[in-house]
């Protein structure tokens, strides 16, 4: 499978283990729980109601501020309570089954988690860390695969799709911090990233991994509220971005209930082409999408909406398109992010020529918009935008039966 093959330039601190070796944690994990859920967990182990608020605060600190992986490390919690918690719960995060490091320092993790209830095999997603000067961005997945089948995106070709839980979403951040030593007092691995200004390695989060975050609204909301909570992970909402392909009915709720930055995968300025590139456009067309953006709660000139535009040679990259793009964004506090198309095995598009990207960018810049071209990162390990795809596929009924039969004869 291409995503997990090592290229000559990359190192592989963690080799991929076979899917069958995964053993799901026996008890539920506290990772991903909000305060109310932690209070319920404490009630379940017999903590009296009047103590719960204080205990929740302690758990919150140990799980989301310190990042401990064992109840034993929660030194401010009584031994008795630690034992009781160990019996009923875990602090499990998704399991890291492969790690690849790009020549440019980008890291990609393949993460494994339990399959569907009573289901076939464990599921896998990818998560990418992109270190940069003065900041480090973590690109998080919201679903296993994606139902939306954008024609230029590798993730859209994956057959099996399921929503990740809040724990599996925030768990990606915990795992990334574990791996790069980004907890208070933590030591990065010797081949690790360069420290950022201010001492944190992960300063920004983008929901731009696998999946459509607004199709998994509740879990994404829970996870991002945990990520931005000042008593725990504490990443400012201004440094968290949700990228959507245009799930119009959820855009307003995202602004009101999560309040993070919005990025919209536009990619085309006319409906017939956008219908082809982003099939969701047949449901919510460009005009509706622009209206939702115009009304996005909290969008101001200081908090602009990012419009992502993938540069596809001869498809959407004419200067006419650039001019139409500028016109379309009139009245919206916007910035435009031009993404050079990242090819993947079997993709049918080519990336626009560099000179064309420059000309396109100039039209936008001259109209008063910033139009940075996103430098592709981690291309050698297929970690760049739209290249993520995990091996998890739904088994056919026949394959499932064969697997069960094998298990029974073992
Ligand atoms: N599903 C969400 C978020 C994940 S995709 C969305 O579509 O917005 C993150 C970004 O990468 C999106 O803008 C997506 O359109 C873009 N993308 C997908 N495939 C790509 C590819 N092959 N090359 C460059 N960008 C791609
Ligand atoms: Fe899904 Fe986004 Fe890829 Fe489209 S671009 S298939 S919405 S992950």
How would you describe this protein?
The model is unreliable at 1-12 and 393-410 (pLDDT under 50). Strands 1-2-3-4-5-8-9-10-11-12 form a 10-stranded mixed β-sheet, covered by helices on one side. It has 410 residues and is α/β, with parallel strands linked by helices. The chain contains 11 helices and 12 strands. It binds S-adenosyl-L-homocysteine and iron/sulfur cluster. Iron/sulfur cluster binds at residues 146, 148-150, 153, 155-156, 211-212, 245, 265.
Chart the SSEs and their pairings.
Layout: E1 11-14, H1 35-44, H2 49-66, H3 79-88, E2 95-101, E3 107-113, E4 123-132, E5 135-139, E6 143-144, E7 162-163, H4 166-180, E8 204-207, H5 217-227, E9 240-244, H6 248-258, E10 261-265, H7 271-277, H8 286-294, E11 305-311, H9 319-328, E12 334-340, H10 354-366, H11 397-409
Parallel strand pairs: 5-8, 8-9, 9-10, 10-11, 11-12
Antiparallel strand pairs: 1-2, 2-3, 3-4, 4-5, 6-7
Bound molecules: S-adenosyl-L-homocysteine (SAH) and iron/sulfur cluster.
S-adenosyl-L-homocysteine binds next to strand 9 and strand 11.
The arrangement of helices and strands along the chain is EHHHEEEEEEHEHEHEHHEHEHH
- Runs with pLDDT <50, length 5+? 1-12, 393-410
- Kindly provide the radius of gyration, computed on alpha-carbon positions and rounded to a whole number of angstroms: 22 Å
Q: What is the number of helices? A: 11
Q: Which structural class is indicated by helix and strand composition? A: alpha/beta
List ligands, each type once: S-adenosyl-L-homocysteine, iron/sulfur cluster
Cα end-to-end separation: 27 Å
Main pleated-sheet profile: 10 strands, mixed
What is the count of β-strands?
12
Beta-strand share of residues:
15-25%
Classify the helix fraction into a percent range: 25-40%
| Basic shape | elongated
Task: Going across the biggest sheet, name each strand in turn.
Answer: 1-2-3-4-5-8-9-10-11-12
Q: Mean pLDDT across all residues, rounded?
A: 86
């Amino acid at each position: 499978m291409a995503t997990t093959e090592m290229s000559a330039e990359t190192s592989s601190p963690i080799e991929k283990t076979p899917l069958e070796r995964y053993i799901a944690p026996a008890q539920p994990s506290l990772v991903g729980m909000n305060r109310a859920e932690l209070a319920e967990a404490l009630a379940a182990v017999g903590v009296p109601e009047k103590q719960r608020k204080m205990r929740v605060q302690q758990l919150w600190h140990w799980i989301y501020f310190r990042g401990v992986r064992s109840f034993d490390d929660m030194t401010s919690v009584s031994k008795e309570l630690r034992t009781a918690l160990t019996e009923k719960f875990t602090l499990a995060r998704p399991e890291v089954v492969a790690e690849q490091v790009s020549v440019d320092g980008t890291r990609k993790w393949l993460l494994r988690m339990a399959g569907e209830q009573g289901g076939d095999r464990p599921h896998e997603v990818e998560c990418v860390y992109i270190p940069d000067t003065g900041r480090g961005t973590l690109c998080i997945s919201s679903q296993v695969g994606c139902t939306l089948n954008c024609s230029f995106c590798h993730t859209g070709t994956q057959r099996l799709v399921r929503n990740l839980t809040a724990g599996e979403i925030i768990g990606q951040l915990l795992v990334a911090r574990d791996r790069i030593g980004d907890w208070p007092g933590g030591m990065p691995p010797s081949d690790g990233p360069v420290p950022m200004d201010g001492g944190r390695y992960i300063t920004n989060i983008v929901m731009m991994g696998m999946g459509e975050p607004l199709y998994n609204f509740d879990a994404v909301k829970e996870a991002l509220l945990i990520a931005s909570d000042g008593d725990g992970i504490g990443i400012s909402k201004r440094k968290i971005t949700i990228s959507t392909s245009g799930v119009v009915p959820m855009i307003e709720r995202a602004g009101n209930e999560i309040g993070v930055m919005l990025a919209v995968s536009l990619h085309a300025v006319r409906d017939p082409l956008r219908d082809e590139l982003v099939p969701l456009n047949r449901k919510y067309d460009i005009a509706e999408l622009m209206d939702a953006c115009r009304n996005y709660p909290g969008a101001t000139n200081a908090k602009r909406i990012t419009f992502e535009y993938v540069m596809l040679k001869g498809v959407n990259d004419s200067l006419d398109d650039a001019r139409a793009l500028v016109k379309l964004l009139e009245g919206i506090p916007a910035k435009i992010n031009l993404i050079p198309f990242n090819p993947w095995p079997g993709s049918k598009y080519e990336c626009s020529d560099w000179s064309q990207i420059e000309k396109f960018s100039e039209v936008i810049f001259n109209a008063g918009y910033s139009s940075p071209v996103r430098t592709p990162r981690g291309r050698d390990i297929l970690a760049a935008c739209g290249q993520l795809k995990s091996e998890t596929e739904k088994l056919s009924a026949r394959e499932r039966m064969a697997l069960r039969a094998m298990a029974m004869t073992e």
